[in-house]
Amino acid sequence: MTDEDNGVLNATFCATLVDEWVRNGLTDAVVCPGSRSTPMAVALVADGRVRVHVHHDERSGSFMALGLARATGRAALVLSTSGTAAVEFHPAVVEAELDRVPLLVVTADRPPRLRGIGAPQTIDQVDLYGSAVRLSVDAPVPASSNRSTWRALAMRTWWATAGADPGPVHCNLPFDEPLVGVPADLPALDDSEHAVVDPGDPFADPGPLPERGLIIAGSGIDDVDAVLLLAETLGWPILADPRSGCRVEHRCVIAHGDTLLRTAGAQRDVEMIIRFGALPASKVIGEWVGASSATHVHIDPTAAVIDPSRSVTHRIRQTAGMYARSIIEIVDGVTRPAWLERWRRADDAVEEALAVVLASATSITEPGVARNVVAAVPAGGTLVVSSSMPIRDVEWFSARRDGLNVVSNRGANGIDGVVSTAVGVALSGIPTALLIGDVAFLHDTNGLLGLDARGVDLCIVVVDNDGGGIFSFLPQATVLEPAQFEQLFGTPHGVDLAMLAHAHGLPVLEASDDLTVGLAVEASLATGGVHIVLARSNRTDNVAVHDSLHQAGIAAAEATGWATA
To answer: What's the gap between Cα 366 and its chain centre?
Structure first.
């Protein structure tokens, strides 16, 4: 085979894969520059139907693709050259696997004859991501003899990532030189239908529904209205995780379950828990679920095992909407309105108490920043929240509101790639705010590369307490000597984040109080473009603020008769 044939074969092979992926739903691809991946990069740009986003850094680029997939609900493609570039995708692959985000991971590779002989920029990329992918394919080098399999390969990889059990798929593509060529005619279309698993068969029937039940709404709910209607029909409260879409203005929605479960009350009388999707971030809620003797029904369309406390008694493989509407049809309706009223009365009291405490603050408080950012994002916008304290502050202290989509990388709960995830969400065209801590921000400053030229509306709120604030809430903070704690956990970085943002050409506002943060988010997203808002806080003061909020909330709940039947 001549060198010219290899260039044509590479180009035709990649054009065929892209054509088939687009036919099945691909709209966005993130390309990380490299030589060996040239045939696929050129094919993606040449197709014209794919929005191509170029990123210098593979780790940031893969999280940007993850954000695009989260925002659009469609699989996004991310492409790298061979070698350690492909390894940089691994954290995003793990997050996509655990949180079931469709991600088509395409890595270029040397042909098999150059593997294992010390060829430059060559590592073992076969099954590189292990069990973290739904499917791993090491494709053959493009050849006339395997031309008839190209469309089937594209369809197989697409529906492995975007099908009934979404997640990452690794497509490893070896290319022989020359890497540049003009594509010939593509193989004929393959109109065979892909197989889709029907997620409608339950593993178990939970039996009759009691009067005193509780719904926990986690991420992954496909039909919020159906879940709200189920709660209203049953007269059950909903502990609504911000990512669930259910933390809206509705009489059944409980926003401050974390506070309520910190003191003995109505949770002792819960007879059944129906949980949709993932568990909330709250450790308090998780521990109560694990200790409860109530029947625990977990609803998930993929029947994923999300049961760290091993308390699930029934697993039902259905979408939230399908399950909720099927139950609504067979129940009689509310028989004990006092049950829901008890929860809502206590929750409203907690909300009022939190507002009073935070209104008295004269400087930045991290819970107040979270509340104000949640309130400030315009209707129809998206809030991306980093792990560690930001997601907890949003869950614990934010109020109910309509019209907000909340996104967070809670599959692996990591703090890497958060900036890039938010950039990916914003690339979908949605006005986006990001709430992130300083350490997570520093983990992914490469997410800022070229950001001002991407044409997105993104406001990044950085809570800067000069280190790892979450560790101040752990026993290490009181057990270790202060100097040792700071060395190992406090880890002050001393970086001037404003100067760092300015180095990327981004405007910065340094907020003086919680209200200013919210006003800055409103102004940023109304104006458009990218802005950084810095909210400087103190780690020691932050612990005290959290304690005072929890105590005020508990006292307010108890004053409503929360602890009595």
So the answer is: 21
Q: Find out whether 327 and 310 touch, Cβ atoms under 8 Å.
A: no
pTM of the entire predicted model:
0.93
Contact yes or no for 168/127 (Cβ under 8 A):
no
3-state helix, strand, coil in the chain (%, to 5): 45, 15, 40
Sheet holding 508-511, edge to edge: 404-407, 381-385, 432-437, 458-464, 530-536, 508-511
- Give the strand pairing for 272-276 and 295-299: parallel
pLDDT-flagged residues of the chain (< 70): 1-4, 191-206, 303, 335, 565
Main-chain dihedrals φ then ψ at residue 242, nearest 5 degrees: -55, -30
Where in the chain are the domains? 3-174, 213-349, 366-536
Q: How many helices (H) and strands (E) does the chain have?
A: 20, 18
Cβ contact 199:25 at 8 Å: no
pLDDT of residue 4: 54
What dihedral angle (degrees, nearest 10) is formed by the CA atoms of 150, 151, 154, 159? -140
* Rounded distance between C-alpha atoms, residue 204 and residue 341, angstroms: 31
DSSP state of 74: S
Strand ranges in 5-134 using DSSP code E only, listed in sequence order: 28-31, 51-54, 76-80, 103-109
Question: If DSSP codes are grouped into helix, strand and coil, which group holds residue 463?
Answer: strand
Alpha carbon separation from 218 to 74, 288, 300, 347 (Å, rounded): 20, 16, 10, 18
- The secondary structure element, H or E, covering residue 23 is helix 3-24
Q: 178: cis peptide before it, omega within 30°?
A: yes
Q: What is the pLDDT of residue 279?
A: 85
Rg (CA), the chain: 25
Measure the CA–CA gap between 341 and 565, rounded to whole angstroms: 11
Amino acid identity for residue 274 in this structure:
I
Burial (CB < 10 A; 0-12, 13-18, 19+), residue 401, is: middle
Q: Are 239 and 216 in contact (CB under 8 A)?
A: yes
Strand partners, 464: 536
- Of 251, 434, 209, give the one whose Cα is nearest residue 335: 209
The H or E element containing residue 503 is helix 497-503
pLDDT digits (tens, 9 = 90+) for 368-419: 999 999 999 999 999 999 998 999 999 999 999 999 999 999 988 899 999 9
Bridge-based pairing of strands 314-316 and 381-385 is unpaired
> What is the predicted pLDDT for the residue at 81?
96
Q: Which residues pair with 406 in a beta bridge?
A: 383
Domain at 366-536, CATH class: alpha beta
Query: Does the domain formed by 213-349 have CATH 3.50.40.10?
Result: no
Q: 3-174: what CATH class? A: alpha beta
- Which of 256, 85, 75 has the alpha carbon at shortest distance from 168? 75
